């Protein structure tokens, strides 16, 4: 009697290499019935075809931007020397302005001195802005004075125009707008006023240089 061999039930529909009998690559196909490629029936991530498990790390959350706060307190030595430089510069300006008969120049130049001594890193405190901004503002004031005559309305126009002129010349120095206002209000003599203003600006820059040497700061960041 002939015995019929039992069918081989150990042969799966697909082999162990991820291909079906027709040679189709099934490495990226879900064979587990979970509906998620790259997971086994228990839901555990398994390596992909390159041998790297999918990353489950949460996306990094950007930190919220910090709100700006007040500047740090300067060191005592820097504070004392900068204050002394500002007082010295202003006393010299008052002396020169009083002798030459232009004491009204002191207020705008006091603001300039505050920038040079207290914030020497700012563009507004650099020599180009201090000297150029003051002289350009004075010239703007004289131009308005020539057209409109002295008075508060002319002073308002001169102050506003001076800001635009300084910005166009890349010499921003906001205290100098007050110089244009003073010119349009008081109608000073042209050459004596400009000469005193130029001398006062050079004096401010010189005091700023001395204060920077004493405090270890860098001034100026640029000249022109």
Question: What are its keywords?
Answer:
single chain; 224 residues; mainly alpha; 6 helices; globular
Descriptive notes:
- The protein is mainly α.
- It has six helices and no strands.
- The chain has helices at 76-100, 106-118, 127-148, 152-168, 176-186, 190-215.
- Helix 3 (127-148) runs antiparallel to helix 4 (152-168).
- The model is unreliable at 11-19 and 28-35 (pLDDT under 50).
Order of helices and strands: HHHHHH
Major pleated sheet: none
Mean pLDDT: 79
Structural class: mainly alpha
Number of strands: 0
% residues in beta strands:
under 5%
Give the termini separation: 115 Å
Radius of gyration: 39 Å
Shape: globular
Percent of residues in helices comes to: 40-55%
Low-confidence stretches: 11-19, 28-35
Number of helices: 6
What does this entry show, briefly?
The chain is an all-alpha fold and 224 residues long. Helices cover 51% and strands 0% of the residues.
Q: How does the SSE layout of this entry go?
A:
Elements: H1 76-100, H2 106-118, H3 127-148, H4 152-168, H5 176-186, H6 190-215
Helix pairs in contact: 1-2, 1-6, 2-5, 2-6, 3-4, 3-5, 3-6, 4-5
